[in-house]
């Protein structure tokens, strides 16, 4: 049976107490920590970056699932790898050409990390079929990247079965944006096996209950 990988997004966590927030979701059964990196160019928001990944690496053994919402991702792969990321996911839309995508995947792999590719709501799945056998994870955004707490866009989830049809069996299919127990269930039934969830977990009173409800 395929296990669902739960990756709480610390974007909605208490930034003044990140270590406790990570320990709390770890104790609640989370598998990964989803780290949203935004540059104010690719998306209209600025969040956290390399030094935060480095500090989190000191306090957790959980997989650091790094979601780069930045332009020129290739310029920062080395720094995130050295900071301790385990997975680096970058955006299809941040790349100028197919070659740019292949090269960025290779850079990530050369550091021994898992490579992820993400698509925004307007990007059709056929655009990324060529890359599916080169990556470890595809991230289907179910909101417009940039902010936590937005409403799930159902149409985006319909990309999941199309991707699954064209993907190697071991590809991790992650969704991100507006995930809660109901939308998570829809995504899982369509073939997703990893859920990134920010506000649903971190704005809840009971992290354990929230994480369990996504499984
Ligand atoms: C949005 C980020 C998400 C965000 C999700 O651009 O990529 O990871 O934290 O937040 P929720 O789960 O609140 O929609
Ligand atoms: Zn994210």
Q: How would you state the average pLDDT, rounded?
A: 98
Named once each, the bound ligands are: D-xylitol-5-phosphate, zinc ion
Using the alpha-carbon principal axes, give the shape. Answer: globular
First-last Cα distance: 12 Å
Task: Please work out how many helical segments DSSP would assign.
Answer: 9
Q: What is the multimeric organization of the chains shown?
A: single chain
β-strand amount: 15-25%
Helix content: 25-40%
Number of strands: 8
List the helices and strands and how they pair.
Layout (H helix, E strand, L loop, with lengths): L4 E4 L9 H10 L4 E7 L11 H10 L3 E7 L7 H7 L3 E5 L6 H13 L3 E6 L17 E5 L12 H4 L1 H7 L6 E5 L4 H10 L3 E4 L1 H4 L4 H8 L1
Parallel strand pairs: 1-8, 2-3, 3-4, 4-5, 5-6, 6-7, 7-8
Bound molecules: D-xylitol-5-phosphate and zinc ion (ZN).
The site of D-xylitol-5-phosphate has 21 residues, from strand 2, strand 8 and helix 8.
